Amino acid sequence: MAFDVFRRRTHLPLQQARQIITAALAEARREELQPLTVVVLDDGGHLVSADVEDGSGTLRLQIAQGKAGAALGFGVSSSTVGERTQGREAFVTGVATASQGRFVPIPGGVLVLDENREIIGAVGASGDSPGNDQACVLAGIEAAGLGAGLDAAED
């Protein structure tokens, strides 16, 4: 039996998430990269959409989610998180444990920003080198007409 419910406000709709993923994967194919896994999380860290290319490794989904999660958790890209936490192994281990693995501080996780430069989600990719993963994510976000959040200090 159906009943009425209140709807949650969506800041990053499925259509835009799919657009990001499609463009990120197209960039990976254009560059002839290894098979990628790309995820889009909303601003609360919940999965909006994900694609796993044929041949992508079995842990790539969790790694991509961890990259996006690191970006959301710290308010900068996962590459920036990695740079800022170098030499702080105990901190990184603690955060990875506290987040139940949703923290991978290497390039490939980028914040998605709206027209006011506020976080509406994050994208993570895994499968090739971290730099190539990040380049594909940036291409996807740009193709969707949204802003990419790397490092607020440099913005």
H-E string = HEEHHHEEHE
The share of residues in helices is 40-55%
Level-1 CATH class name = Alpha Beta
Can you say what the CATH homologous superfamily is?
Haem-degrading domain
Mean pLDDT metric: 95
Task: Provide the spatial order of strands within the biggest beta sheet.
Answer: 2-1-4-3-5
In short:
The protein is α+β, with helices and mostly antiparallel strands and 155 residues long.
Keywords:
single chain, Beta-Lactamase, about 160 residues, about 40% helix, 5 strands, globular, alpha+beta
Provide a descriptive summary of the structure in words.
The protein has 155 residues and is α+β, with helices and mostly antiparallel strands. It has one domain: Beta-Lactamase, CATH 3.30.450.150. 41% of the residues lie in helices and 18% in strands. It is built from five helices and five strands; from the N terminus they run H-E-E-H-H-H-E-E-H-E. Strands 2-1-4-3-5 form a five-stranded antiparallel β-sheet, with helices on both faces. A hairpin with a 4-residue loop joins strand 1 and strand 2. Helix 2 packs across helix 3. It is globular.
What is the secondary structure topology, with strand pairs?
Blueprint: H1 14-30, E1 37-42, E2 47-52, H2 60-74, H3 78-84, H4 89-98, E3 109-113, E4 119-126, H5 130-143, E5 147-149
Antiparallel strand pairs: 1-2, 1-4, 3-4, 3-5
